[in-house]
Recover the amino acids of this structure.
């Protein structure tokens, strides 16, 4: 029901209560049976074991588990039980399951933080008596009392107010404390942020006091509706998770197909059934890059560490890569795009600057503690400007001591103070809304028109404009101080604004250059939002701005069609924010969303990347988000996007390397069998090659720095696979290259003996992949990118080479892997064959002009 559209008396009658007596005990019991307790609902928790098992349903995970069983079976059948490969695979499965559990717990933490924010106690009138009770015991119709510093315990319609102000920033996004007035009668369509005759659960009373009748409790409150949104929405899969899931399915199906085909072809060619079974299952295991999930996890972890140094703390690993795919960044205004510090930026007339700041320094209730200024944003800005102008408040107050004050209220729209300026002489200083203060000043028609013109000009720049006036008079002071507020001398206008962060403009331009659309979503007024957005380069005309009210009037289909036309969303509700995110996602966009309040939590959770503010953000927002910005800065998101793009490139390099290497292994075995040759490798050799080449080199590729031009290209399309841009054909061709080199060495070695052929093939297949890892670093020539600019890749090459040479050269290990020692000449041939991938790929790159 639209309680704000009713008068206070109509609301009291509708709730069947009494403003002086409150509810009776019987009525409270009756209503609690109907409405329940004033608490937020909790979701029934799934048992830990079921949540853990649910993480194992992924096709890639099931394939990896099958690979572990096959690997163990293969070694057992050969009477050489080896637990290394199965343990590695099971460790990968366990790591991925843990990451999945962490992702699911995010929603629970967000809801718990919401419950913690609800006020624990409330002052209530019941049966004619005032008492303090637990807030959870409130029911609709209860009469509550509100004082400065208390949290509002439930949604309520105000009955009485005395200078009441509430901080609703965490709920509505409104950056200023809201003046409340019980006497207002508002239209039914009034947005939440403008319902000034209402107070809402979990908001804070920052000034004044009042009385209100409870209109909603628990899940029926505005914060309860937010909790409902959070329970309904599922956390979307990241693009990385989708791509890996699809890749896993392809690899799993391919591995099974390879196993069957090679087994049938080999048996048809007369090979022993058992030997072909062992070879085919070993090759199937080799075909699955079981190191890929672990490699990706390590890459993401390293990315998280780098981002933490840049003030971005990531709570979910896959989000690091998702940032690189972001196409829209929906940012809050206050504190993210702006400095979150009201600042005096314009004074009219400029010649009166010192006088105006002196007056505002005296007519001011902000507090000074050393270098720190605290108080309302407006008064803090005025006092800070006065200090910067060289004015000392203590000296001014000593010279002109305050004798009386008329505090600001929402009806008068002004504040006045009276100061002694000499024996029996006083000065009244008044500051407030321009239209209210002009009527109190002695001004000609021309002067009024000029002041209104200046006011309009300043308001057009999104400045909050204050007018200042004063009058000197002879004592004594009258009992009615308001009578002094007349015949004032108009001093001038002061324009205040929360200015844009200086570094954000450049970051906005970088976003556009990178094909990312920056969008402002704010609870502030449309004109203010448009002015800031225009200054930052976010929008260029007012048609690109829309209010939450206009948004709510749109049909879902209309919003989906027009959503990409807007760059500013002003005066929005929590539901509006979710609408915006979903509409963009339905258009195939990858959405990053920033926020700091509980009103932002549903959108943060529903977005592809939720970014909470670390300094001024609520625990609800932080727990609902994927990433926390320690400096509350938009530029940090852009830096994180660059990091994410670099990580995506590195993951793609790893996939490219692993699959081309594994295809090389498949080509080697499959071609030999089709040609009627003996198997070039035995099962244990295949597993060793797979273990050595799928580990350190792939991880080392993950630490390559981002390309210099990475922010000059568009984001990766959400539906784009790892193999777009001809990568699939490149992987296959490179796999054929590796297989051909291994078969060539096998053929040469077999001229002398089968053991020598297998040993040379074993060495070349492994070492050629290690050389090939350097080709992955850049689409350009490796010599342009720098052959040794990735020290970890160089180190991995030498470590893996040492391991490979050891299993051939050390007699005990050679016996295990069924190889024989190689002569210096044979090693020379092995190195020539193994280094060929760099020569071949470099030749192709040069032919393409890279």
């Amino acid at each position: 029901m639209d309680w704000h559209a009713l008068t206070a008396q109509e609301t009291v009658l509708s709730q069947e209560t009494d403003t002086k007596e409150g509810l009776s005990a019987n009525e409270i019991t009756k209503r609690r049976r109907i409405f329940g307790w004033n608490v937020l609902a909790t979701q029934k928790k799934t048992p830990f074991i079921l949540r853990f098992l649910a993480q194992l349903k992924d096709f890639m995970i099931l394939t990896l588990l099958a690979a572990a069983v096959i690997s163990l079976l293969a070694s057992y059948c050969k009477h050489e039980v080896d637990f290394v490969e199965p343990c590695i695979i099971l460790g990968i499965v366990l790591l991925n399951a843990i990451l999945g559990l962490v992702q699911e717990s995010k929603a629970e933490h967000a809801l718990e933080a919401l419950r913690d924010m609800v006020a624990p106690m409330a002052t209530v009138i019941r049966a004619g008596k005032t008492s303090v009770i637990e807030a959870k015991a409130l029911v609709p119709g209860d009469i509550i009392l509100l004082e400065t510093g208390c949290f509002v315990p439930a949604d309520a319609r105000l009955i009485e107010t005395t200078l009441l102000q509430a901080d609703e920033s965490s709920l509505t996004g409104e950056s200023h404390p809201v003046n409340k007035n019980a006497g207002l009668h508002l239209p039914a369509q009034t947005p939440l942020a403008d319902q000034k005759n209402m107070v809402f659960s979990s908001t804070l009373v920052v000034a004044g006091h009042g009385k209100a009748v409870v209109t909603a409790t628990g899940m029926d409150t505005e914060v309860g509706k937010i909790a409902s949104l959070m329970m309904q929405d599922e956390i979307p899969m990241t693009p990385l998770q989708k791509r890996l899931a699809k890749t896993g399915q392809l690899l799993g199906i391919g591995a099974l197909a390879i196993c069957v085909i090679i087994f049938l072809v080999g048996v048809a060619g007369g090979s022993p059934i058992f030997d072909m079974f062992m070879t085919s299952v070993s090759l199937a295991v080799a075909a699955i890059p079981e190191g890929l999930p672990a490699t990706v996890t390590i890459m993401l972890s390293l990315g998280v560490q780098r981002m933490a140094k840049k003030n971005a703390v990531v709570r979910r690993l896959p989000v690091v890569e998702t940032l690189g795919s972001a196409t829209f960044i929906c940012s809050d205004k206050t504190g993210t795009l702006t400095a979150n510090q009201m600042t005096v930026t314009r004074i009219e007339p400029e010649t009166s600057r010192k006088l105006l700041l002196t007056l505002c320094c005296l007519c001011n209730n902000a507090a000074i503690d050393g270098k720190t200024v605290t108080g309302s944003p407006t008064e803090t800005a005025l006092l800070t400007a006065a200090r910067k102008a060289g004015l000392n408040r203590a000296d001014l107050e000593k010279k002109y001591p305050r004798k009386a004050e008329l505090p600001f209220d929402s009806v008068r729209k002004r504040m006045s103070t009276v100061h002694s300026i000499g024996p029996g002489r006083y000065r009244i200083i008044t500051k407030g809304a321009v239209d209210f203060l002009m009527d109190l000043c002695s001004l000609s028609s021309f002067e009024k028109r000029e002041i209104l013109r200046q006011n309009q000009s300043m308001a057009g720049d999104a400045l909050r404009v204050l007018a200042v006036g004063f009058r000197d008079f002879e004592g004594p002071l009258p009992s009615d101080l308001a009578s002094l507020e007349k015949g004032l001398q108009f001093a001038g206008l002061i324009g205040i604004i929360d200015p844009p962060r200086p570094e954000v403009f450049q970051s906005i331009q970088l976003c556009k250059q990178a094909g990312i659309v920056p969008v402002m979503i704010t609870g502030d007024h449309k004109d203010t939002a448009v002015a800031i957005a225009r200054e930052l380069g976010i929008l260029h005309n007012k048609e690109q701005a829309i209010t939450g009210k206009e948004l709510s009037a749109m049909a879902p289909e209309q919003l989906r069609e027009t959503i990409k036309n807007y760059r500013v969303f002003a005066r929005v509700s929590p539901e509006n924010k979710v609408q915006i995110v979903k509409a963009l996602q339905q258009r195939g966009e990858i959405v990053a969303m920033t926020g700091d309040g509980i009103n932002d939590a549903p959108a943060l959770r529903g977005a592809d990347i939720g970014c909470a503010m670390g300094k001024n953000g609520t625990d609800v927002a932080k727990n609902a988000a994927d990433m926390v910005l320690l400096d509350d800065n938009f530029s940090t998101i852009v830096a994180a996007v660059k990091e994410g793009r670099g990580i995506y490139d590195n993951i793609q390099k790893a996939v490219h390397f692993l699959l081309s290497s594994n295809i090389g292994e498949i080509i080697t075995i499959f071609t030999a069998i089709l040609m009627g040759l003996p198997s070039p490798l035995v099962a244990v050799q295949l597993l060793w090659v797979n273990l050595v080449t799928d580990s350190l080199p792939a991880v080392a590729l993950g630490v390559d720095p981002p390309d210099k031009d990475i922010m000059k290209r568009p984001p990766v399309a959400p539906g784009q696979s790892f193999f777009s841009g001809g990568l699939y054909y490149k992987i296959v061709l490179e796999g054929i290259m590796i297989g051909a080199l291994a078969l060539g060495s096998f053929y040469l070695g077999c001229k002398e003996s089968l053991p020598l052929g297998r040993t040379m093939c074993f060495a070349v297949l492994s070492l050629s992949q290690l050389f090939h890892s350097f080709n992955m670093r850049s689409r350009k020539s490796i010599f342009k990118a720098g052959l040794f600019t990735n020290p970890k890749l160089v180190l991995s090459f030498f470590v893996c080479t040492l391991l490979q040479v050891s299993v051939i050269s050390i007699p005990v290990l050679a016996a295990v892997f069924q190889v024989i020692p190689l002569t210096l000449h044979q090693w020379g041939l092995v190195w020539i064959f193994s280094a060929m991938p760099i020569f071949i790929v470099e030749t192709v790159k040069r032919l393409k002009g890279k």
